[in-house]
Amino acid sequence: MFGRGYLSLAVLFVTSTIGATCAVAQNGRVQNIVLVHGAWVDGSGWRPVYEILTHAGYKVSVVQEPLTSFDADVAATRRTLALQEGRVVLVRHSYGGSVITEAGNDPHVAALVYVAAHMPDAGESEALDGKRFPSDLTRSGFIRKTPDGFNFLDPSAFPSYFAADLPLELAQFEASSQVLTAIADFSATITAPAWRSVPSWMIVALNDRVISPDLERWYAKRAHSHVTEIRGASHSVYESQPKEVAAVIEEAARSVSP
After folding, report:
1. 126-166 tens-digit pLDDT
2. Do 24 and 31 touch, CB atoms closer than 8 A?
3. Are 10 and 95 within one domain?
4. I want to staple 113 with a disulfide (CB 3.0 to 4.6 A). Which of 46, 152, 196, 201 is the partner?
């Protein structure tokens, strides 16, 4: 049979392992993070933020939206939320802000984090709100359309408008691997905005050329969001400055934890 020393070591190992895996969950802290991407890209861009948060002990899920309709994107987000055990910080980039505004009333959601994102109210769409503060992109003519109702950003313009602070090779790859997005997604209207009942955070990317930083500030002021402005950040701030983005997400998780 095993000796007392062996059993003591075994107990110590099990105890330390449980302690490590439950570090974030202790005292009821929010430990689940759900990340949602925006138009024209997929969830892989969240990898730098994902790695920081998982290293810190959070359970992170990344939604892969079809971008074929607003309802389908909301459903994909809700499907992932339904798999969570416990409370969640729901994070969204760009067009995805509209999606979490609609999907964020899920009972799992404890906080919303908008990363250079849209934040419409009931009866509004991001296309309508974008007219308040037109962005460089909306004035550029670089948004291309397909005959069957999808759009994308001209690959030649993608690096400078969407990802100016990413390495050029990465920006060019993302330009060539865009997920074509249903044009109707951008005019979908919100029914019950989650930010009216759930605390929210907004990251303003000060060099954003896809969504005007002034619009991001306007959204945040209306929603009484906690605001972080990041200098030099393009629309791809979640990839180019993941430490700063992850820090805001962790701040949200701590703030809504008991």
Report:
1. 999 999 999 999 999 999 999 999 999 999 999 999 999 99
2. yes
3. no
4. 201
Same domain for 160 and 183, yes or no, is yes
Question: What is the pTM for the complete model shown?
Answer: 0.89
Q: Which residues constitute the domain of residue 9?
A: 1-26
Looking at the fold, whether 142 and 99 belong to one and the same domain comes out as yes
Are 21 and 44 in a shared domain? no
Q: How many CB atoms neighbour CB 121 within 10 A?
A: 15
Quick one: 79 and 192 in the same domain? yes
Read off the pLDDT of residues 84-111 as tens digits, 9 standing for 90 and up.
999 999 999 999 899 999 999 999 999 9
Which among 226, 236, 215, 195 has a CA at the least distance from the CA of 127?
Answer: 215
* Domains in the chain, number: 2
8 Å CB contact between 115 and 203: yes
If DSSP codes are grouped into helix, strand and coil, which group holds residue 224? coil
Q: What percent of the chain has pLDDT over 70?
A: 89
CATH number at residue 211: 3.40.50.1820
CA dist 234 and 244 (Å) reads 13
R_g (Cα) of the chain, nearest Å: 20
Choose among 115, 116, 125, 97: nearest CA to 194: 97
Residues 6+ apart with CB under 8 A from 238: 45, 46, 48, 49, 93, 115, 116, 245
pLDDT, position 18: 36
Among 243, 239, 253, 197, residue whose Cα is nearest residue 93: 239
What average pLDDT does range 48-76 have in this prediction?
98
